[in-house]
Amino acid sequence: MTQFRALRRVASILTTPREPEDFLNLVNPLSSARQLRGVVTKVVRETADSTTIHFRPGRGWNPHAAGQWARIGVEIDGVRQWRSYSLSAAVGHDPAITVTAIGYVSTALARDTKVGDILFLDTPQGDFVLPEHPRPLLMLTAGSGLTPVMSMIRTLVPRRPDADVVLVHSARTRDEALFHDELLELADQFPGLTVRHWFTREEGARRLDLSDVTDLETLCPDWRERAAYACGPTDFLDAATELWLHDGDDATHTNLTIERFAPVLLEGSGGEGGLLTFEKSDKEVEAGGDVPLLEAGEDCGVVMPSGCRMGICRSCLVPLVAGRVRDLRTGEVHGDEGELIQTCVNAAAGPVHLDI
């Protein structure tokens, strides 16, 4: 260890003002000790708007559990942008994300990513994972909510002859359904997987109705006996939560695990809003009381730190210089000078100055 430190000091002298890692990056772009990175190894178009991006992570990556997500950073016009994406690859394989072209960063990733591109990474996170012990499962998904569940299915079904999984997936059309053909092939190959697609915009179709048990009992009659996992749009998950709470048996509501891609906001939690001043960026913008500080800053060109964008990872913290903010999840108004504010779930409650 002493010899290593001595060699590093010599290397630092020879490479000043650069660090030795800067020159290693020219040879191996994954070698940075300061930021975990991955190189894109394969890009697969899933639908007209969705793309799966496979990547090989550098040293420091922790293997993911099926269903987890990770923060992914990408350089766009010279600015590093971070977003959180579910990992769709099976456990034991190099990770992959499946991205739908909705929003600035997701559209850039889905449309422009090429083999050999470098992604900036954070380690996998999340507790939307398979149960510890084998049991019958119901996977209830809509739209891109299938991505973490696909990791679960790819991991579990081919490896466990005792697997018993029913997947109910809602999509607008067959052409927009993620992994459509692969899922049907898996269901044909492995008797432990049953796939039920529900297309909401094809002839004679309608939205999957979770306001009562009728549709669900048609698709999966024994749904009360299964451990259920649900992921999709907010209204879809809210309806599932209510159904399990009110129409299951005494234990059913504890058998539903939810993964949300957006924070649960308190209805009517917006206040008066106010003038936002971004001190270091020298920018100001009027923002409504229901607009997250993160979105208001991005809309006026401020480079805002971000991660999950739903109040979990705390990557969006920015110091408050002055003013008060309202937590959009609880309605609480708070703010002390120097307090670190989660900008993705707080809005202005009057004039606000942020140290960014």
UniProtKB/TrEMBL annotation:
Domain FAD-binding FR-type, chain residue ranges per copy: 33-131
Keyword Mitochondrion assigned: no
Record bears the keyword Metal-binding: yes
Gene3D superfamilies for the chain: 3.10.20.30, Nucleotide-binding domain of ferredoxin-NADP reductase (FNR) module, Translation factors
Keywords: 2Fe-2S, FAD, Flavoprotein, Iron, Iron-sulfur, Metal-binding, Oxidoreductase
GO MF annotation list: 2 iron, 2 sulfur cluster binding; metal ion binding; oxidoreductase activity
Every 2Fe-2S ferredoxin-type domain range: 274-356
InterPro entries recorded: 2Fe-2S_ferredoxin-like_sf, 2Fe-2S_ferredoxin-type, Beta-grasp_dom_sf, FAD-bd_FR_type, FNR_nucleotide-bd, MRET, OxRdtase_FAD/NAD-bd, Riboflavin_synthase-like_b-brl
Cofactor entry: FAD
Entry superkingdom: Bacteria
Official protein name in the record: Oxidoreductase
Record organism: Terrabacter aerolatus
Lineage, highest ranks first: Bacteria, Bacillati, Actinomycetota, Actinomycetes, Micrococcales
